C-alpha cells in the first residue's frame, strides 16, 4: 500500500475490483434481504435491518481494533504508516458505528416500541464508543505538530479500543439490564436463508471496509506526502537564511566542513 | 463605533474558527452533556422529554461558561487587553464586539444542540417561532452578562472558578424563563411562552444596558 | 508650553505595595528620556502610570494636558506602550495581528505594510501564528503594531530586549524618528550604554522615586527638540 | 519516589488553598449546580431524590473538569512543566503527585456536595460504607484519568474544549456505576451497589495503570 | 575524553518548520560557549535540543554520553535550562517556589538560603507572590532555582535579559564559577559584548546551522579549563 504510483489517484486494480464487488454485491444483498428472506414472526419486516445492522457492528469493531493496533505499533515503531492506518480506520469506524446506532434505533422503534433506551447497556456502550471516536477524531483535527499529535492520538486510540470487549460482552455481563439481543449467530437459531444473507452482508461489509480503508489510507498518506514536499521547500529556504546572513563566514564554514 | 465592534467580534470568531473549536469540539461537547444526562437520570423517554428544555438551558449555560472563559483568555493571555485599552476604540465598542462574538458562537451551539435534542430525546417542536425568539433573546442576555462578568472575574488568577459562581445566580432567571418558554414551545408545559419571552426581553435589555455602562468602568480599573 | 508629562509627588499602589512612592518628573514634547534603575525600582509602574493604566493614590499628574486622577481614560488613546508582554493574539498569524491592530488604530494598509517591512516581518513569517514565533520575532511584531499606531507618547519597556543587534539599532532609529516627529519617548532600560542616542536624558529611579535626572533643568525649560 | 509525588501534590494543594478556590468558589459552584437543576427540572422532592445520585455525579464530573484544567494550568502557565521534566523527579512521581492532589480536592468537594444534597433534597443515606467506598473509588478513577487527559489535551491551544470531549466519554462508565451504587446506598434503586463498586474498582485500577504507562510517553514529547 | 555535547548534522522540526537544519557542534567539559545569531536563528531551539526536550528528526547527537535519539529522558535530570519563560509558580511566594525546587532537586535548605541571598532575594521579597514581582525579580528567582539545582550543563537563554547592571555582573560570575566547577555552559545571547568573560568561545548560528565558530579546534582538542 505504501507505493502509490499515480499520486493523482487513490484507486488501483485492487480497489477497483473491490468497488466492482460492491456494485454487484449490494443489489444482491438487497434482493435477498427484501424479497427472498422471510419476515420474522414477531419482528415482521423490521428484521431485514439485521443484514446491515450486524455487519456494520462487527466491522465497526474491526475498524476500532485496527485503530488500537495501529496506535500500539505507532508508539512502538514510530512509523507514519501505522499512524495513517490508525487514523483512517477510526474514521471508517465512526461511520460504521453511526450506522449501527441509526439502524438499531430504526429497528428498535417497531420491536421495542422506542427509539432509544437509556438503561440498555449495549446501546449505551455503543454510544460511548461513538463518542470516544468523535473525541479521537477531534484530537486528530487540532492544528499542531504532527508527531506530537500522532503520539497523543495513539494513547487515546488504545483507550478507545479497550472499549470493544466491553461493548461486545456487555449483554452477557449485565443480562438483566438489556433489551438487546444476545449472541444469536452462534446458537444456530437462524434459518438457512437468513443465515446466508447475513453472511453475504458480512462479506460485503468487509469488502466495503477494506475498500474505504485503502482509499482513506492513501489519501492520508498523500496528504502527509504533500506536506513533506512543502517541507523540502521550506528547508531550502531556511538553509538559505543562514547562508544569506554572512557570506564571509560561509567560506570559513565550508573549509571546516572538509576537516570533519 | 460599530465598525470597531465588528472588527473585534470578527477577530474572536476567526480565532475560534482557526482552532476549529466549534465544529470539532464544542459541538460534540453539547452532545455529550445531553448524553451524560441521559445516562445519569436513567429516565424513560417521557421524563427526558419533560425535562428536555431544562436540560437544554442548563447545558447551554455550562457551555457558555467555557466560551466566556475562552473569550476572556483571548484578550488576557498576552495582555492584549491593555493594548485595546490604549487604542482609540471605545470601551462601548469593545463590549459590543465581545458580546457579539459570544452571541454568534452560542447561537450556533444552540442550533446544534437543538438538533441533537430532537434526535436523541425525540422531542417535537410545536411553535417554531417561539423557540427562535426565546433562543435569540435568552442568548443575548447570556452573552451580554457573560462578557461583563468575564472581565469582572479576570486578573484575580482564579477565573475558572470565580466566573461560574458569579454568573450562574445572575443567569438563573434567564434559565428559568427560557425553560418555561421552551416547555410551551415543545408542548410539554401549559405555560404562556410568549409572556416568558417578554420577561426575557426585559432582562436582556436590562443586562445589556447595565453591561454597556459597567464595562467601561471595569476596564478603567483594569 | 505645558509639559507633555507632568507628575508631582505621585504615589502608586500595586496591591498594597507602594511601587512608586513620591515621584516627580516633567517631560516635554519631542524629548527622549531613559529611565534606569535596579530591578523592582518601579520603572514599569511609572510607564503604566503615564499610560493611564494605573490609578494614582497620592499626588497630582497630567499627561498631554489630561489630569491623571480624573481623565485617565482620555490619555489612553494617545499613548503607545510596549510592555514586558507583547499584547498579541497567539492564535492569529503575524499578518492577521497586524491587520487587526492597524484597523483598530485607523491606519491604512500601506502603513501596515511599511511597518512590517521595517521590522523584517515579510515572506514566510507573515503567515506564521504568533504562538510559534521566536521571542525576538514576537517583540518585532509588537513593535510593528506600535509603529502603525503612531502615538504621541511612546512608552517603551525594555524595547531592546530579545532583539538582535540589527533590531536594537532599528529601535534606536525608530525612537529618534518618533522624537523628530514630535513624540515624547520614555524608555525603561537596563542597556542605556547600548542605546545609541546622542541627545538623551537619563532619569534614575530607585525605591519608587527619582534619585537623579541628567536633564532636570533641561526638562523645566521645556526645550523642544 | 513517593516523597517527590507528595511534594508535587502538596504544592498543588497549597496553590489551591492560597487562592481559596475550594472553599470560596468551587464549593459554592457545586451548590449552584444543584440549585440550578432544582430549578430546571422543576420537580417535586421525590423526583429530585430519585435523580439525586445522577445529578451528584454529573456535577462532580463537570467540576472535576474545572479542577483538572487548573491543575494543568499550574504547570503550564509559565512552563514550569519543562522545569519539572529537567528535574530528577520521575514522570511516574509527577503522575502520582498530580493525581493525588486532584483526588484530595475532589474528595473534599464531594463531602461538601454530599452535605448540600442531603440538606437540599432531604435525602437519607442508608448505607454509609457503600457511599464512602463508591466516592473514594470513583474519585480515584476520575483523578487518574483526568490527570492523564489533562496533559493529553494541553499545549494545543484548545484545551478548554478538547479536554471535556475526550474525557467525558471515558468517564461515562464511572458516572453510571457510581450513580447506580449511590442509588442503592440512598435506598432509591434496587441495585446491587457493591457489585457496581467492584466494577468501579476494576475501572479505577485499569485507568491508573494506563495513566502511569502513558503519562511518561506524553511527557517525553512535551 | 568524550565531548559533553556532540551534535552531528542535527535537524529539528518545530511543527513542520525546520528550526535547526544541519547543525554540528562539539562542547567539552568546563567550556563556556556563547551562541549568537539573528532573531529566529534557532538559538532557543538548540538549547532545548541539548536539554532533551525536543526530538531530533535527522542526524545524531549525544549529551553527557546519552544518545539524544534514544535516551533523551536520561539527559534531562543533568541539565539546567533558563528559558524565555521563568518556570515558576505564579501563586506561590518566592520562598515557597525556592523551597519546592530545592526539595525537588534534593538540595539542602542551606543551599537554598545561599542561592537566594546571592541573587538578592531576601527581606520582604521572600513573602511576595511571584505573580507580583517585577520582570527582573522574576528572572532572579528563576536563576536562583537553577543555582540550587547545580546541573552539569547550564543552558542559559538570554540570562542577562531584564536584569539590572549588578544582576548582569552576577550572572557572569555565576557562569565562571559553574565552569570552574566543571560544568559546561551554553549561553544564547544578543549581548555578547556585555558578557564580561575573558575566555569564551562564540558560535554564530543562522538559518538553523552554524555559520562561524571561534573555538572549533579548541573544542576538538577537548581542552578542559
Ligand atoms: C440503537 C440501538 C442499537 C444499538 C446501538 C445496537 C448495537 C449493536 C451492536 C454493537 C451489536 C454487535 C454485538 C456483537 O456482536 O458484539 C449488535 C448486534 C445485534 N443487534 Fe443491535 N443494536 C441496537 C438495536 C437493535 C435492535 C432494535 C435489534 C432487534 C430487536 C437488534 C438486534 C441485534 C442482533 C440480532 C444482533 C446480532 C447479535 C449477535 O449475534 O451477536 N439491535 N447491535
Ligand atoms: N502585590 C504586590 N505586593 C508586593 N510587592 C509588589 C506587589 N506588586 C508589585 N510589587 C513590587 O513592586 C515593584 C514593581 O516594580 P516594577 O515592575 O515597576 O519594577 P521595574 O523597575 O520595572 O523592574 P524590572 O527592571 O525588574 O522590570 C517590585 O519591586 C515588586 O516586587
Ligand atoms: N510551527 C512553526 N511554524 C513555522 N515556523 C516556526 C514554527 N515554530 C517555530 N518556528 C520558527 O522557528 C524559529 C525558532 O527559532 P528560535 O526560537 O530557536 O529562535 P532564537 O534564535 O531563539 O530567536 P530569538 O533570538 O528571537 O529568541 C523561528 O524562526 C520561528 O519562526
Ligand atoms: Mg519592568
Ligand atoms: Mg530565543
List the SSEs and their pairings.
The complex is a heteropentamer, with one copy of chain A (260 residues), two copies of chain B (222 residues) and two copies of chain C (225 residues).
Chain A: H1 13-36, H2 50-77, H3 80-111, H4 121-141, H5 146-173, H6 192-245, H7 247-259
Chain B: H1 2-18, H2 21-41, H3 45-76, H4 80-85, H5 91-121, H6 128-152, H7 159-185, H8 193-221
Helix pairs in contact in B: 1-5, 2-3, 2-5, 3-5, 3-6, 3-7, 5-6, 5-8, 6-7, 6-8, 7-8
Chain C: E1 5-14, E2 17-27, E3 32-36, H1 43-50, E4 58-63, E5 66-67, H2 72-75, E6 79-82, H3 94-104, H4 109-118, H5 135-149, E7 153-157, H6 165-180, E8 184-188, E9 201-206, E10 209-213, H7 216-220
Parallel strand pairs in C: 3-8, 3-9, 6-7, 7-8
Antiparallel strand pairs in C: 1-2, 1-4, 4-5, 9-10
One adenosine-5'-triphosphate sits between chains E (14-15, 17, 19, 37, 39-45) and C (128, 132-137, 162).
Please tell me about this protein's structure.
Helices cover 77% and strands 0% of the residues of chain A. By secondary structure, chain A is mostly helical. Residues 1-5 and 246-260 of chain A have low confidence and may be disordered. Chain B has 222 residues and is mainly alpha-helical. In chain B, α3 (45-76) runs antiparallel to α5 (91-121), α3 runs parallel beside α6 and α3 (45-76) runs antiparallel to α7. By secondary structure, chain C is an alpha/beta fold. Chain C has helices at residues 43-50, 72-75, 94-104, 109-118, 135-149, 165-180, 216-220; strands at 5-14, 17-27, 32-36, 58-63, 66-67, 79-82, 153-157, 184-188, 201-206, 209-213. The longest helix of chain C is centred in the C-terminal third of the chain and has 16 residues, at 165-180. The two termini of chain C are 13 Å apart. Chains in contact: A-B, A-D, A-E, B-C, B-D, C-E, D-E. The B-D interface holds B 19-21, 25-26, 28-29, 32-33, 35-37, 39-43, 51, 53-55, 57-58, 61-62, 66, 69-70, 73, 157-158, 160-162, 164-165, 168-169, 172, 175-176, 179 and D 19, 21, 25-26, 28-29, 32-33, 35-37, 39-43, 51, 53-55, 57-58, 61-62, 66, 69-70, 73, 157-158, 160-162, 164-165, 168-169, 172, 175-176, 179. Bound molecules: protoporphyrin IX containing FE, adenosine-5'-triphosphate (ATP) (2 copies) and magnesium ion (2 copies). One magnesium ion is lined by residues 43-44, 84, 157 of chain C.
